[in-house]
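Progress against Task 2.4 (sequence-to-structure conversion) is shown through the following example record, which the project officer requested during the mid-term review.
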Amino acid sequence: MKILKFGGTSVGSVENLNRVKEILTSDQEDKIVVCSAMSGVTDQLIRLVESIKFKDTDAITRNLHRLESKHSDVIDELIENQKVKNTLKDGLSSMITEMFEISSQDYSEIINSRIITYGETLLTYIFSGFLNTVDVPNVLLDAKEFMYVDSVDNPNLEKVSKKLNRILENNIQSSIYITQGFVCRNTKEEISHLKRGGSDYTATIIGGAINASEIQIWTDIDGLHNNDPRYVDETHPISHLTYNEAAELAYFGAKILHPQTVSPVVDKDIPVLLKNTFDPEASGTVISNKTYRKGLKAISAKDGITAIKIKSNRMLMAHGYLRRIFEVFDNYHTSIDMITTSEIAISLTIDDTTNLDKIVKEIENYAEITVEQDHSIICIVGESVINDKNSYKLFEILNFIPVRMVSYGGSNNNISILVDTKDKIPTLRFLNEKLFQVKEEAVV
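C-alpha cells generated for the chain above:
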C-alpha cells in the first residue's frame, strides 16, 4: 500500500481537487491519502481561536460564517448531483454548529487543537464525497481514531499500527482511503496536532505504522531544490537525498518538509518521494537510505534565530561551567542549534524564546550574557560535505558578509553559518553562485 499526502495548495481549489483525483486514479494500487486543509483555512481557524480567547462573539460568528461559505462554495462547484450536494451541505452545517458550540467554551490548549484541526476534517469530508460521485469509491477514515502521538518527537507507531490495521481490515472493500493530516491524540488521548506543516509527518507515521511500499508527498514544487527558489534564481530539484540529508535540510528551514518527516521511516527503509501536483510527470526527489553521490547537495535557511553570548565572570571557565550553562537551557526545555566556545565565553543559538527571559535571569547570576535576535542559520548540506573539494569556497563569504558563528566538523553532513537575517538573501545567492553554478551538471 502507498501513502499519498497532498498539501494545502494541492487541495486549495476545485481545479486542484480534480488534479488530485486524476493522480489517485492513475494506477490501481491500494493507497491511503492524507490531506491538509485547503490553503488559507488553517490561518482562518487560528484567527477564530484568537476570537475565542477574547470571547469576541461577533468575530467568532463572522469567522465561522466565512468558513462555511468557503466550503459551501466548493461543494457547489465540485458536485453536480443535487442530492449529494444537499447531503454534504447538511454535514458541513453540522460541523460548523459543532464549532460554534466549542467556540462558546473558555479557551484552553485543547480548545485550540480541536478548532485548528477542523480544516482537514472539512476538506476530507467534501473530497471523499466528491470522489464517490465520480465513481472513485473510497473510505473516509477519522485520523483521531488511530493517530496516537505521545510527543511530536515520539509517535507511537505500534499503537497507530494496531488501531489502523484493525480499521483497514474492517474496510477491505476499498482500495482508496482518505484521512486527515495534522491532527492526532496525545498521551491523555486528547485531540492535539503535529504543528504547522505536520501533514507530511502524518503520512510518514502512517507509512511506518503499516510498512507502506512508499510515501509520496505532493506539493506545488517539483522536489526539494538545491537552494530556496523564492530568493535564488537558477535552482534545480535534487533527484536523490539520503534520510540524513533530508532531515538536516528540513530542520534548518527547507519548507517542503516538516522537520520530523523522515524519522518514522528511516529504520524501515521506506522511500519518500517529493512530487509536484501540477507536474505529475516530473521526477521530483527520492529520499531513501541509498547514497547516490557524496558532497555538496543543497542549502537551506532557518529564520527566527536568537544568538546568545555568555561570558564567564572569571578569566578562565571553571570545571563544570559548561554543564551548569547547559542545565539552565535543559531545565527550560530549550534546544540549542549551534554552539562555539572560547576560553572564557560561549556563543550559542536557540529558535524558541518562550523562556528566554527566565534563562537570562538565571545565567546573569554568574555570567555576563548578551542576546541578539533576528538571525538566520544558513545550512550547507550533503553526505560527507566537509570532504567536498569545493566546500572551501563557502568561506569566501567572510569577505562580504558579517558572519556571527560557524559550525564546522560537528557533522560530516552539515556546515552551518549564522548571519543577521537582513543578510540572509545575499548569503544564499552568494553561496549558490560559488558552490553550484560553477558545476556544469545538475546535482543528482
